Structure formats: C-alpha cells, structure tokens
Amino acid sequence: MIRLRLLAGFAAGAVLALAAHAEPGKFSVEDLARVAGVSDLDLSPDGEYVIYSVSHPNKEKDEAQSDLWRARWDGSGKRRLTKTPDADEYQPMVSPDGRWIAFLSDRGDEDATTQVWAMPADGGEAEKWTNFPGGVSDFDWSPDGARLAVIASDPERPKGEEEPKQPAPIVINRYYFKEDYHGWVTDLREHLYLFEIAGKKVTQLTKGANDEEMPAFSPDGSRIAFVTKRGADADRNLNTDLYVIDARAGAEEKRVTAFPGADNDPSLESRPAWSPDGKRLAYVQQLEDKWIYYAPWSLAVVDVDTGAVTRPLGTDGFHTKPRFAADGKSLYLLVEESRVTHLSRVELASGAVTPLTSGPRFDYAYDVAANGRIAVLGGDDAHPYRIEAAEPGGMRLLADNNEWLKKRKLATVEDITFRSADGTPIDGFLMKPVDYVAGKRYPTILRIHGGPVYQFSHEFMEDWQVFAANGYAVVGVNPRGSSGRGFEFAKAIYQAWGEKDVPDVVAGVEHVVAMGVADPARLGVGGHSYGGILTDQVIARDTRFKAAISSAGAANMFGMWGVDMYIREYALELGLPWRDRAAYERVSYPFFHADAIKTPTLFLCNELDDNVPCVGSMQMYQALKTLEVPTQLVIYPNEYHGLTVPSYLRDRMQRMLDWYGRYLGVEPPRP
Q1: DSSP codes of every residue in 228-263
Q2: How are the residues of the chain apportioned to helix, strand and coil, as percentages rounded to the nearest 5?
Q3: Nearest CA to 409 among 435, 445, 385, 379?
Q4: In terms of pTM, does the model score above 0.85?
Q5: Of 129, 93, 100, nearest to 202 (Cα)?
Q6: In this predicted model, what pLDDT tens digit does every residue of 283-320 receive, in sequence order?
Q7: How confident is the model over 479-506, as pLDDT tens digits?
Q8: Where do the DSSP E strands lie in 450-574?
Q9: Neighbouring-strand partners of residue 140
C-alpha cells in the first residue's frame, strides 16, 4: 500500500511538472464569463489596506455575484470578506477611524431592498444599519464616523399596506419616463437623508418633485454637497447642479452652481469633492445642453460661498473623478487622451498637469489615503481591472483577481494611425491572431465602440481575445464622435451619424489590408449600442463586408423616439420628428436604404433594454428578412443594456463565432 502511494505521488508530481512547462491555452468562449469584474475601490484612512468589490459568476444560479474583498498595502493577505450566494455586496466604504466597512447589499429574502450594511474592517458578521422601505442607492460617511448621508427612494406603498394580488397599474406623468436598469420612471423620488448610526435616527433633509444623488460630507461634517436638478419640469433638460445643505433637521438647501448645462452629470460617476478647508468643490462641467454628450466633461472648481467657477484645464479635455490633495492647492483626477486614461495631478494655480501613471493603460478609479498613499483601479491590454499602488518608482500590484489569465496565451495589441478619406488622422488598434505568421492574410473583424462619445482604450477586451484565439485579426477604430481628442473631434458627427464615422472606420480596415494582415475577401463588422447603430450604417453604405453583427443597434430613429431613454437628447440634437423630418431621416439612413444592404447580419438585443430597446434590432431584422438577405434575431430574456448572465455571455460569443465563421470561412470551435 505504501509503495502504491509513493508511485501515485510520483506520477502526480510528473504530471504537475509537465503541466508547468506546457504551452498556455488560448482564451476561450468558456473563459469569457470567468473574468472577474473588480470595482468600488476604497483605501483605508491609514493606507494599510484596500477594500473592493468583485463580480464573478455564480454557476449554480447562472448569474453574476458581487462580493467584498480586502488586500493589504504590501500586496499580501488578499481575501474574500463576504460570500452570500443569494445577495450582492458592493460600494464598500471604510469608516474614518478604519474600524468598519459600510456597504450596500440586498441581503434578506427575495423581496429585500438594498440597504446600508456594516461589518468589522478585518471581516466578520455584518449587520443591517438602515431600513428604508424604498431602498438605498448611495451613501457617504461623515468625517466623525457617527452619521451617514443616505440617498433613499420613496416607497412604492405606504407603510403597512399589503402588496396587491396583481401588480398595480403603472401610472406615468413624467416627460422622462423610462431608464435602463430602472424601468419605468414614475413620481417616486430619491431624497437625501441624515442617518445617525447610534440609535439609527433618520432625518429627511430634502423633499419635493426632484431627485438627489452623490452625497458628499464637508471636511468638518457640518454640510453635505449633492447633485440634483430643480425648476419647472426639470426632466426636459440636462441641467444638473451642485447644491449644499447643512447636516441638520430643518436646514435649507443652497444652490452652488448656476451654469445652464450639466454640472456633475451623475452618469460620469464623479462624486463632488470638497477642498480641505471646506470652501470649494471640485467637479466636472460640460457645455450647454445643446451639445449633450458630445461636449467634453472638464474639471471645474466652484467657491461654495460666492459661486465663482474656475476651469483650471480649460473646456476641451475629458476629465473625471477629481479630488483635492491634502495641500488644497492641487487636485487628483483622471485625464482621458487618445487611447488612454491616466491618473494625474494638476496644480490649480498654473494648470500644470503631472501624470501619476503612464503607458498604454486605462485607469478607471483611485483613492488617496491621508498619508499620501495612492491606490489605482485600472487595466491594460493584458489585464482586466486590478488594483495597484501608484508610487514614485512605478506601479506595484496590490490585488489581482484574474491571476488565472497567466495560464492563457493572449494576443497582443498594437496602435495604428491612418487617415480617413478626407485626410483626417484617425487612431485605432490592431490585434493580430494568436500565432500570427508574418506575410499571411487573415479574416478580419472591424469592431465598433459604443457611445458614440467613448473610445477604445488600452483595456482588456475579452471578445477580441476570443476572436484572436480563433484565427481572426481584430481592428478597433476611434472614429470622429469618439472622446479623448477634444470637442471638435467629438461633435463632428452631431446630427450626421454615419456620414463621417463610417469612412473613418472603413479606412481603418483599408489600412490593415494595406499592411498585408487583413484578407479583403473575408471582412466582418460588428459592435454593441452605438457600435450596433454604426454597424447598420456601415453595411448600408458599404458592401465589402461579408458578415455583420449588430448588437443593441437601431436604424429607424422615427421608431426609437419615445421608446428609448433618450427623449431629451433627440430633442436637443435632432429636434422633433414631425417638425424636423430631414434630420431624423438623415440619421436613419440604414432603414431608408435597407435595400442597399447585402451583408448577412445577425441582430442581438436584450429584452429589458431601455437604452437601445429591441425594437431597433427587430425593425432591421424584419427589413432584411423581407429583402431575403440572410439574417437572424436573438433576444436575451430579462437582460438590460449590458449582458450579465454567464450562460448568455457564452451563448452570445459562440453565436458571434458561428456567424462570422459561416460567412468568413472559419470553422468555429464547439464546446
């Protein structure tokens, strides 16, 4: 028996030794849903540890699961703090004394609402702190750690009223009446409350027909800044403003910003940041409503007492998440440029900017401890988001929840720059197939980003890696309309979707053909959201593509008006359909020229998507089906704009491989 055990142990050791020297496997369809999503970074006040949330697949329930993790500053001790298969924990915030972690969770029965929970900072049992009937969407610690500023929703029913046997009728009164991930937008509102931890006393600070978001305590704890919209029928504009209110019962709110445009649009995830002396607030400001999301979101600083606003870096840059340094004379912020986003520090007096990170990377969030330690949440072409320390000598890893990727042979990415048909310089990326052989041409997929005011950056692109692992070259282009290159570049497609950005993305493919990489006879195209919209534009204007995949796209803007969540943006950019028909027809080119489409096209959409609803995909599917162009429509049930169900992620990727493979002559892998 002992001899057999020894032989078995020797055999196992031999297998492990061989495995250690084996060629890493390629990134697969199954790997797609395995990538952990890291977010919600928070650094302890003393800088000794970081808390963050991780989204990963729950295989038994086939859904995404979010838990809290912790790692020490020296990079050791990474561990999971929560493991609740029936609930999510996210948005952790360490208490000012470092003893507690407060977070949001929907723990409880299946009808539980999201509340603030808390647990000891080194782990342990959590307890529910708040009990707002309508649930909590955001919160902030007071500097003394004794109170929370809480954003809570109005309850659907008065306290004590039983739930009806059938759902109550949905009553709509508002101009802006639907929103992705939220659903119907009714008269229920979200207001600011003061929550005293000892005794759990609740004081409502704001009320009325308005919503408050992104609370931030002043350094002395006496006031709370927040973002809101006011005025008659505020749903009709984008004019968010910063307000301040004393943290006490009966206080009156004060409007701080008066610009007739978006001051700190909450969708940019930039909580207003107080200066150390409590006299100023840093935030991001856009231009007037007319330019909607085409306008850069740039750093602004306002004097709380006088309302005087300065723009230290002008109005043509893309900046997010500013916060004051301890000296009050400088700010940290994320600065987006072409293909990259870096954490930087700006001197307020001179406007001088010093990057604190560098190279081909995308920084998404960061935190700064009182002792100056800086933790950054970001990634690059080879790494999904992870947490690193930004130090004078460079970046140092603190926590990586995707270390298994070391066992995968990933494709590399290279920058490409070329000129569009009219001579405009355009930036993009080329990912060559894994095991690329110089001089050989490959089937090539043009991927188009969403937005439109967004850009492909040096981030980990899971779908690109799957394509490259299966023998495709991938081209990603940042056409006009993209962010990172200023206002003029972004607004070039205003009221003119497809007219300039189609030539830009097509020029990217032509460039890679000229490089000798892309096979001009085997070209595919596809994208999600505005990427789907622009895919429809491409195949209606250019027949060179042999296969297309339009995900969450749309082509008939007459039919989208009043159906999706962009009623304000339509009015500001295109006008009204019955009055400004020419504008709507111009951006609806693919629908009114559907008979020019020859490309076999797969249409994908998500059932509950209010961002780009399925009607956009349905109409184009029906048009191509009528014209007998090969097409298929796939709808993912109960999913919003972003797909989250692990089995759906795998299904979508496999369908994409199958579709491109059928028309580009590539045999797709089968699980």
Answers
A1: E--STTGGG----EEEEEESSTTPPPEE----SEEE
A2: 20, 35, 45
A3: 435
A4: yes
A5: 129
A6: 999 999 999 999 999 999 999 999 999 999 999 999 99
A7: 999 999 999 999 999 999 999 999 999 9
A8: 473-478, 518-528, 547-551
A9: 149
